[in-house]
Amino acid sequence: MPVVRFHGGCHQIGMSCIEIDTKKSRILLDCGMDPNKNTVPNIDPKDIDAVLVSHAHLDHCGAIPCFNFKKIYCTTPSADLMYILWKDVSKLSKIYGEKEIKRALDVIETVNYREKKKITEDITMEMYDAGHILGSSSIYLDIDGKKVLYTGDINERETRTLKPADTDIEEIDTLIIESTYGSPLDIKPARKTLERQLIEEISSTIEKKGKVIIPVFAVGRAQEIMCVIYHYMNSGALEEVPVYVDGSIIHTTGVYLSYSHWLNPKMKRILECGQNPFGYVKKADSSVFNEDPCIIISTSGMLQGGPVLQYLKLLKYPTNKIILTGYQAEDTLGRALEEGAKVIKPFKNEIPVRGEVVKIEFSAHGDYNSLIRYLKKIPTPNKVFVVHGEKYQSLSLAMTIWKSLKVPTFAPPVGSVLPLF
Ligand SMILES: [Zn+2]
Ligand SMILES: [Zn+2]
Question: Matching InterPro entries, A to Z (predicted)?
Fold first, then answer.
């Protein structure tokens, strides 16, 4: 009987890694790292036939180069994005280097959405658009006729850059679902409301001739924020000031532009008209620090390393502002600022925080209502595993599913080994 082993991403966000063992094969669904602690899952890659990667975020793919895998499957854009992220990791944390990255790149096989692929003797795989970042996928497995859906990170709502998650699925025996916003308390404002808040916050700082720092993840968040600013500047609703970007955003945005047919059709049309909603930004240089108001978009999103750290000294001036655009994990500098730290120390010297700190959560995940709508759109499974969420969120969603669908539902802790069907 096939079993599922949970190596990571259980009662936590980070280090997603799920192993499926059947009579004839062993595969991994994702092999992520904890980007804040630089930890990787404890696995033995020896008998693993293949790793299937849902998307190019470090909590899903960051640990791959640490292991000598035989085969890696992902979508074409994911492969390009992973390369950029892995290079970033090799520079920042040194848990692997060029050699290990090359070894991983050599065994990648890319697929398109809805392309059926036999990956082992008894497993066939298909990837569906998950609506989360460019190339993100939910992974659908056929194991000797039984069906498994691993959602990966999903967004059931359309965004400026992406289509909503694909829910056109025939049957599911076992569902493995994310639970980032799994609690009924996790209800987020509509995208339009968030966009307006962002523009108001930027405008009020520009009026005071201040500078706005926006820390972002290089993939997904960065491109969406750039699109929003472009749109509002174009319509005249936001004053035109220089917008600078720093970090691997420059490279990841290049990948977004080269896969326009994977994006939201509206975005594709904009690009086909010869407009480039990312083209107005400049690479950050020393002029960022001069007197004029400007916007700085830079990695990393939780202020754990990355070029954004050098701009934090701007926070000693009360006219400047930092806008946190996503979830800030515990023990990160981002969380400290969010919780009102009066002094920060990104490098040797302390920086007094006199500028304003604002949080507007542009999540690439669906909120609680969106998760519930997603569950209604897909066929009812016979068994559910809830992963990828903090403990309260995972247990909460498991309870909701168990009550509404009346099927066995588990929110397993790391290390659990359970029957897959
Ligand atoms: Zn993700
Ligand atoms: Zn994730």
Answer: Beta_Casp, MBL, Metallo-B-lactamas, RibonucZ/Hydroxyglut_hydro, RMMBL
Q: Which fold has domain 3-185+364-419?
A: Metallo-beta-lactamase; Chain A (3.60.15)
Report domain extents, the chain.
3-185+364-419, 191-359
Q: Kindly report, residue by residue over 8-40, the tens digit of the pLDDT.
A: 999 998 899 999 999 999 999 999 999 888 899
Distances 268 to 180, 184, 221, 265 between C-alpha atoms, Å = 29, 34, 18, 5
Residues, CB-to-ion distance under 5 Å, ligand 2: 59, 153
Where does residue 187 rank: exposed (0-12), middle (13-18), buried (19+ CB within 10 A)? exposed
pLDDT at 53: 98
First to last CA, the chain: 8
Cis peptide before 203 (omega within 30 of 0): no
CA of 219 to the centre of ligand 1 (A): 9
Using N-to-C axis directions, what is the helix angle for 368-377 and 391-405, rounded to 10°? Answer: 40
Ligand index nearest the alpha carbon of residue 221? 1
